[in-house]
């Protein structure tokens, strides 16, 4: 089993997954090597969920071959159905697949940790000085690269996911629904899943698809392992640990600051937001901004928009904009603390309550989702969901590309710097197969040099 050639298992009526279980996992990537990758990912994961999923697909499936295409998309489809940041949840899922719970914690945590410190620094500069010209220059260099990354993701994921006319139709319908008709993302995903399930249930037997199910292809680094088997006891322990990890900091915060304090309010509010906000970061932002600006009066609408601009072009999930909102709430309402200390506590409280449920969702549900791999009905549903996701990513690519290249709208003229940078970055990534981290860094440096020359 030298190299990265896939293992082809003829099932012959037996359980192929159980047969593969007998193959030892010694060929898996080492934990130390995985940690280095997750740290790197946390530093280069720009572009919101579409860009981050594109980077993970490029790095984990195409270049490193740590997981198979099928397994990556299977995990992605589950994460798309959850509330919260799907890209961070996907990283947690894959980390858990490779190295159990510690791997999942490392992958999910380092997906967020760099952005915590970067956004804290930017938030402080914004709140204290309101002048981030050089930072804005770097971000202006990042944005076009992100556009290129997302467009590359549409092409590459679409090529693998749209394997039939029916899938093309589903992807197109998803794009029309979300781009033109403004259909909510969860409804698109649910509809696609039901359509795929119905098509599978009523598909005539004896088709080529049925024959294909007799052969399962796995990368040797993506074997089904014992730790992926569902267990009621482990599920209960996971849920109990999650509740404890939520309750202890909350109790300590109440004892220190009081039940009615700003930080206790943030703890409760952002926990609720993490549990009920489906549909991606933009849906979360719409819900949170309305409550934070209009309901609680924590910050202004203008400050919320500025926070989104910072979060969109810093590494980490786009939902990190909530940390900015928590920071500004603490800065604007220090309640006896210094503005900086109150803001930092507000930011950390917000981030903790936003991401803790994501870890619980993965560790609780992933074993059951893994146990359903190979189920033809689920496979049909998830295949349709994957096709719909291509349409959703195309929607994000157009929205983000328009915001970068025509920042003032079509009537406001074209940002030719951004347009040329986007095209150049796409050619370097897609045609020349350059490492995304160097493309991102180069884009930031070009943006910095440009703003310094203009000044």
Explain this structure:
With 455 residues, this protein is mainly alpha-helical. Helix content is 74%, strand content 2%. The protein has one domain (27-223, 231-455). The protein has a two-stranded antiparallel sheet with strand order 1-2. The model is unreliable at 1-27 and 205-224 (pLDDT under 50).
Note the main attributes of this structure:
single chain, 455 residues, mainly alpha, two-stranded antiparallel ribbon, 74% helix, 2% strand, globular, disordered N terminus
Rg result: 22 Å
* Extended strand count: 2
Helix and strand succession? Answer: EHHHHHHHHHEHHHHHHHHH
Individual helix count? 18
* Shape category: globular
Helix content: over 70%
Average pLDDT figure: 80
Largest sheet: 2 strands, antiparallel
In total, how many domains does the architecture comprise?
Answer: 1
Low-confidence stretches: 1-27, 205-224
Structural class, from secondary structure content?
Answer: mainly alpha
Give the strand line-up of the largest sheet.
1-2
Q: How much strand?
A: under 5%
Distance between the termini: 58 Å
Briefly say what this structure is.
With 455 residues, this protein is an all-alpha fold. It has helices spanning 16-21, 31-44, 48-63, 69-80, 86-128, 133-161, 165-179, 185-201, 208-212, 232-257, 262-276, 281-295, 301-312, 321-332, 339-371, 376-405, 416-431, 436-454; strands at residues 7-10, 215-218. It is globular and about 65 Å long.
Reconstruct the topology from this structure.
Blueprint: E1 7-10, H1 16-21, H2 31-44, H3 48-63, H4 69-80, H5 86-128, H6 133-161, H7 165-179, H8 185-201, H9 208-212, E2 215-218, H10 232-257, H11 262-276, H12 281-295, H13 301-312, H14 321-332, H15 339-371, H16 376-405, H17 416-431, H18 436-454
Helix pairs in contact: 2-5, 3-5, 3-6, 4-5, 4-15, 4-16, 5-14, 5-15, 6-16, 6-17, 6-18, 7-8, 7-16, 8-16, 10-11, 10-15, 11-14, 11-15, 12-14, 13-14, 14-15
């Amino acid at each position: 089993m030298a190299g990265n050639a896939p293992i082809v298992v003829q099932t012959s009526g037996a359980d192929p997954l159980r047969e593969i279980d007998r193959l030892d996992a010694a060929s898996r990537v080492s934990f130390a090597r995985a940690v280095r990758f997750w740290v790197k990912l946390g530093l280069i994961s720009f572009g919101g969920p579409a860009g981050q999923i594109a980077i993970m697909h490029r790095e984990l499936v195409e270049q490193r071959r740590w997981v198979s295409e099928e397994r990556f998309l299977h995990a992605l489809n589950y994460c798309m159905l959850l509330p919260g940041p799907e890209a961070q949840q996907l990283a947690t899922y894959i980390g858990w697949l490779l190295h159990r719970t510690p791997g999942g914690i490392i992958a999910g945590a380092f997906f967020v940790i760099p952005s915590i410190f970067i956004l804290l620094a930017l938030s402080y500069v914004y709140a204290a000085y309101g002048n981030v010209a050089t930072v804005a220059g770097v971000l202006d260099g990042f944005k076009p690269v992100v556009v290129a990354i997302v467009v590359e993701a549409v092409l590459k994921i679409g090529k693998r996911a749209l394997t039939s006319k029916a899938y093309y139709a589903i992807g197109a319908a998803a794009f029309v629904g979300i781009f033109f008709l403004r259909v909510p993302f969860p409804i698109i995903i649910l509809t696609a899943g039901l359509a795929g399930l119905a098509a599978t249930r009523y598909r005539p037997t004896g088709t080529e698809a049925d024959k294909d199910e007799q052969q399962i292809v796995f990368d040797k680094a993506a074997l089904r392992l014992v730790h992926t088997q569902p267990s009621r006891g482990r599920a209960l322990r996971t849920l109990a640990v999650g509740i404890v990890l939520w309750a202890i900091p909350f109790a300590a915060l109440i004892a220190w600051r009081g039940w009615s304090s700003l930080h206790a309010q943030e703890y409760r509010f952002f926990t609720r937001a993490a549990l009920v906000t489906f549909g991606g970061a933009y849906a979360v932002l719409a819900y949170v901004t309305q409550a934070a600006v209009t309901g609680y009066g924590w910050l202004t609408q203008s400050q919320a928009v500025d926070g989104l601009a910072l979060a969109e072009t810093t590494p980490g999930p786009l939902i990190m904009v909530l940390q900015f909102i928590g920071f500004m709430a603490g800065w604007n309402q220090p309640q006896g603390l210094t503005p900086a200390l109150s803001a930092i506590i507000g930011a950390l409280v917000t981030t903790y309550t936003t991401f803790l449920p994501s870890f619980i969702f993965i560790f609780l549900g992933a074993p059951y989702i893994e146990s359903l791999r190979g189920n033809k009905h689920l496979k049909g549903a998830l295949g349709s969901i994957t096709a719909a996701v291509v349409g959703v990513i195309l929607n994000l690519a157009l929205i983000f590309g328009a915001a970068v290249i025509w920042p003032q709208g079509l009537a406001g003229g074209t940002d030719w710097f951004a347009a040329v940078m986007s095209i150049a970055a796409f050619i370097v990534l897609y045609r020349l197969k350059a490492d995304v981290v160097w493309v991102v860094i180069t884009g930031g440096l070009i943006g910095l040099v440009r703003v310094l020359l203009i000044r």
